[in-house]
Design a protein that fits this description.
- This protein is α+β, with helices and mostly antiparallel strands.
- The protein has one domain: HIT family, subunit A (2-Layer Sandwich), CATH 3.30.428.
- Helices cover about 30% and strands about 15% of the residues.
- It contains three helices and five strands; from the N terminus they run H-H-E-E-E-H-E-E.
- Strand 1 and strand 2 form a beta hairpin.
- It starts with a helix and ends in a 24-residue tail after the last strand.
Length: about 140
């Protein structure tokens, strides 16, 4: 029974891996005919796009070119954070969120890892308290 369950889990995981996008080049950000117009940064490991459906002005997607180790996505977080801080220092925005939707239940719609940088400005949300907690309705507004 345990051996059968282990086999089922392994098959499920293999199916999920098979359904994943195989290359960042196959993502909607790259396969879009005008994708090159949305590239704001690129190096050997990472490519950064303007989000085609931005939550706020300046919304960027940090996309690892490969996903062979955790460092690939960690680098995206690092670059997004640094850009967020620079945006504050240069008075482009007042604050920012950096985040990832990992899995369908978390809202991921493109099955290639990517990190969102969402610049925030006063008034873009009438009650920003709770920040990323607001991904679950009514959970962001809490009292101490």
């Amino acid at each position: 029974m345990i051996k059968e369950r282990s086999h089922q889990i392994r098959n499920k995981n293999m199916h999920e891996i098979e359904d994943r996008i195989r290359s960042y080049k196959d993502t909607p950000w790259c396969s879009n005919p005008k994708a090159y117009q949305n590239i704001v940064y690129e190096d050997d490991d990472t490519i950064v796009f303007k989000d085609r459906f931005p939550v706020t002005e300046g919304h960027l997607l940090y996309v690892p070119k490969k996903v062979t180790q955790q460092l690939d996505i960690i680098r995206c977080f690092e670059l997004a954070y640094k850009r967020g801080v620079r945006g504050i220092c240069e008075h482009e925005w007042e604050a920012f969120n950096v985040g990832i939707n990992n899995g369908v239940a978390a809202g991921q719609s493109v099955m290639w890892p990517h990190v969102h940088l969402i610049p925030r400005r006063k008034g873009d949300n009438p009650n920003p308290r709770g920040g990323v907690r607001n991904v679950i309705p009514l959970k962001g507004d809490y009292n101490d």
